[in-house]
Specification:
- The protein is mostly helical and 336 residues long.
- The protein has two domains: 198 residues, Cation efflux protein transmembrane domain (Alpha-lytic protease prodomain-like); 109 residues, Cation efflux protein, cytoplasmic domain (Alpha-Beta Plaits), CATH 3.30.70.
- Helices cover 57% and strands 7% of the residues.
- Strand 1 and strand 2 form a beta hairpin.
- The two termini are 22 Å apart.
- Helix 3 runs antiparallel to helix 4, helix 4 runs antiparallel to helix 7 and helix 5 packs antiparallel against helix 6.
- The protein has a three-stranded mixed β-sheet, with helices on one face.
Length: 336
């Protein structure tokens, strides 16, 4: 028996085993934001590469290459968002929603690699400081602040609820910070002649960005392996289901991310006195949606336990969840 408050539009496209009425959440459309962001950054890469070549500035040329990776990151994020909207079919019954998680992971990985490259170059320049093309570099970097800040703002709203959009936001915000550091370092070097300041500022900025990006990397990797989303307390979910009228036992509890903005749950409920009618299922689905933002709920209701089903999650000595075959702290909802 499957729970859901509204008819699933996907059921019409694919009348398969997952098509029993489910409550789906359609992520916000950020196509315009991606299109504008990619266009702005392509234009900026062209400007930066041209002036880097004109003034023979390796710094600007290197940063143009880095900003080209931003365009690739935005394209990846957009592709992940679009793939997540593809309708389910007989071969992909959940659609391609996980593409957004993969895009967030790749974006975080690209950003970490880019910052590692920046830090490596900064260490080399610290050993042999080079004169800075002050005014030109400051002007071009100032344009970079405007472009990257504007692009980051396009994704700020979605970054609070969607890991994929958070990856795009962090990528652009990081570049705005890098450009700001270039302007400050360029100005101080121009006034005081401190050629060593540019690599030092670059190292500090790289450290700040890596610190901010690590959480995105960790979360996206966790979700790729069917980890329980951070906003869901699995024990609280189990307690809610166990507290429903007539429920004697909860087993086979699974909670995972279908994408960066949609969470799914399946569970087996034992109700000895019967029940599990439409009103009960609507109540359970509504409560899970309201308290845990779980959109896709499937509940199996029986009068007696079926075989050796999974038991409710148990906390370990450190407060973690003991799960079958996975890390006890980052366990999937499939618990034993």
């Amino acid at each position: 028996m499957s729970a859901g408050a509204d008819a699933d539009a996907d059921a019409q496209a694919y009348p398969g085993p997952m098509s029993d009425a489910h409550d789906h959440h359609a992520p916000a459309n950020f196509n315009a934001a991606f299109g504008i962001g990619i266009a702005l950054n392509i234009a900026f890469v062209a400007v930066e590469a041209y002036y880097g070549w004109k003034v023979n500035s390796l710094a600007l040329l290197a940063d143009a290459g880095h900003n080209l990776s931003d365009v690739i990151g935005l394209v990846l994020a957009w592709g992940g968002a679009l793939a997540g909207r593809l309708r389910p079919d007989a071969r992909h019954t959940y659609g391609w929603k996980r593409a957004s998680i993969l895009a967030a992971f790749v974006n975080a990985l690209l950003l970490l690699v880019a910052m590692g490259s920046l830090a490596w170059e900064a260490l080399h320049r610290l050993q042999s400081p080079q004169p800075i093309e002050g005014v030109t570099i400051m002007v071009v970097a100032g344009i970079g602040i405007a472009v990257n800040t504007a692009t980051a703002l396009l994704f700020m709203r979605g970054s609070k609820t969607d890991l994929n959009l958070r990856g795009a936001f962090l990528h652009m915000a990081a570049d705005a910070l890098v450009s700001a550091g270039v302007v400050v370092a360029g100005g101080l070097a121009l006034v005081f002649g401190w050629s060593w300041l540019d690599p030092v500022v670059s190292l500090l900025i790289a450290a700040v960005i890596v610190w901010g990006t690590w959480n995105l990397f960790r979360q996206s990797l966790h979700l790729l392996f069917d980890g329980v989303p951070e906003h869901v307390d699995l024990h609280a979910v189990q307690a809610l289901l166990a507290g429903l009228p007539g429920v004697a036992q909860v087993s086979d509890l699974h909670v995972w991310a279908m994408g960066t903005s949609e969470t799914a749950l399946t569970a087996h409920l034992v109700m000895p006195d019967g029940g599990g009618d439409d009103a009960f299922l609507r109540q359970a689905t509504a409560a899970l949606h309201a308290q845990f933002d779980i959109h896709h709920v499937t509940l199996q209701v029986t009068r007696e336990p079926l075989g050796n089903g999974c038991t409710p999650p148990q906390r370990g000595p450190a407060g973690g969840i003991h799960a079958h075959g996975v890390d006890p702290v980052h366990g999937h909802g499939h618990t034993h």
